[in-house]
C-alpha cells in the first residue's frame, strides 16, 4: 500500500487506462432489443441483477462481472441500471472490450 502513496501517478494511470474503454462503450446508446451485455460491480450478484430487472441469461456462462442477458419490454436498459448494473450495452461491445475487434462498437 505504501507503494501507491509514493507513486500516485501509477494509480491515476491505471484508472485512466481502465476508464477510457469503458467510457467509450458507455457512450454508445444501448440497443432497443437484446441481448445486452450487462456489467455489474463484483460485490453484486449478476443473478440478482437479472432477477430484479426481469431478465434471463443468454448462453451457459458468465464472467465475474458481466453476463449476456435478454428481457422483454421497452425500458430494459433502465431496469438493468436500477437493479445495480454499471454498464448496459449491446453484445458487440464484448468483442471490442476483449480485444477481438479493434473498432469501437457501432463504428464499423
Q: How would you characterize this protein structure?
A:
By secondary structure, the chain is of the alpha+beta class. It has one domain. It contains 5 helices and 4 strands, in the order H-H-E-H-E-E-H-E-H. The chain has helices spanning 2-6, 8-27, 46-53, 76-82, 92-97, and strands spanning 36-39, 56-57, 66-70, 87-89. Strands 2-3-1-4 form a 4-stranded antiparallel sheet, sandwiched between helices. A hairpin with an 8-residue loop joins strand 2 (56-57) and strand 3. The radius of gyration is 15 Å and the shape is elongated. The relative contact order is 0.20.
Provide keyphrases for this structure.
13% strand, 5 helices, alpha+beta, 43% helix, 108 residues, four-stranded antiparallel β-sheet, elongated, single chain
Helix content: 40-55%
Q: Structural class given helices, strands, pairing?
A: alpha+beta
The poorly predicted ranges are none
Query: The biggest beta sheet, please?
Result: 4 strands, antiparallel
Report the principal-axis shape: elongated
Number of domains: 1
Strand order of the largest sheet: 2-3-1-4
Cα(first) to Cα(last) distance is 42 Å
Q: Which value, in Å, is the CA radius of gyration?
A: 15 Å
Order of helical and strand elements: HHEHEEHEH
| Average pLDDT figure | 75
Strand content: 5-15%
Question: Would you report the number of β strands?
Answer: 4
Per DSSP, the total helix count is 5
Amino acid at each position: 500500500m505504501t507503494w501507491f502513496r509514493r507513486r500516485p501517478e501509477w494509480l491515476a494511470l491505471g484508472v485512466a487506462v481502465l476508464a477510457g474503454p469503458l467510457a467509450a462503450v458507455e457512450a454508445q446508446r444501448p440497443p432497443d432489443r437484446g441481448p445486452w451485455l450487462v456489467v455489474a460491480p463484483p460485490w453484486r450478484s449478476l443473478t440478482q441483477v437479472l432477477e430484479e430487472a426481469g431478465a434471463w441469461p443468454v448462453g451457459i456462462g458468465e464472467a465475474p462481472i458481466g453476463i449476456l442477458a435478454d428481457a422483454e419490454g421497452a425500458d430494459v436498459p433502465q431496469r438493468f441500471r436500477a437493479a445495480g448494473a454499471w454498464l448496459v450495452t449491446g453484445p458487440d461491445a464484448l468483442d471490442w472490450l476483449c480485444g477481438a475487434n479493434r473498432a469501437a462498437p457501432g463504428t464499423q
